[in-house]
Amino acid sequence: MDADDIRWRYEQFRVLVMGRANAGKTTILQRVCNTTDQPEIYNTEGEEIGLSAVAPNEERGIHDIENEMRFAANPRYVFHDSRGFECGSTEEFKIVQDFIKQRGRDTAPRRQLHAIWYHLPADNASHLLTGVETRFFQECDPGAVPVIAIYTKFEDFVLQTQEFLISEGLDEEDALEQASISASDHFTKEYASVFSRMKFPPSRDLKLQRKDARCDKLLEETADALGDDTLRKLFVCIQGNNLDICAKFGVRR
Prior knowledge:
Blueprint: E1 13-19, H1 25-32, E2 40-42, E3 48-49, H2 57-60, E4 68-70, E5 77-81, H3 90-105, E6 115-121, H4 131-139, E7 147-152, H5 154-167, H6 172-190, E8 204-207, H7 216-225, H8 229-237, H9 243-248
Parallel strand pairs: 1-5, 1-6, 6-7, 7-8
Antiparallel strand pairs: 2-3, 2-4
Helix pairs in contact: 5-6, 7-8
Organism: Jaapia argillacea MUCL 33604
Protein name: G domain-containing protein
């Protein structure tokens, strides 16, 4: 199927971005959109507004989850930021819950929510989920919208594993080699297994390091999780010049 054959149905791919402050969210979105520029923010009237709308806490003023965040390098992505959700208030939780429910069921392609990217920093694995995050995976039914758990800063977990192995008697080089091999399985079994006890666990998950410049694994997991083949092909074709992803999912540029 050619990219032009599917654009009639969907023009944009809409993602709800979730995760606590300093989880590396903006950096990952920049990588996905192949840019180092800051995003442009638009309100529900389509008017561009200042970046203060996504600034940290006291700087941001009143945050609105309906605001759209886009990057000029790839405007076919539309991102929504759940910022404020991490404070754990009942009001903020309901705002996010209602947004997912309404946008996930919206029949208008231009308003539909297509995926949720939930960023969870792996550098403090023993506290992988906060209280509000646990509540999200226990109580918030995403319906048909896939939730992708992204374990960010995974290189820090690898280094922590290396430090442990050094304390057990391995030299630095051997410890790093072993940590690079074993850290992923250890993290999955020891920490990510918490999702097995959740009512609404992620559809997919992945471990992301700073060296993963193009975020190919995130793109692959998201594409795999999409239930609609046409939507999957749209998602793949908006990746621009990422020919490896296009080839994997059979989209001709």
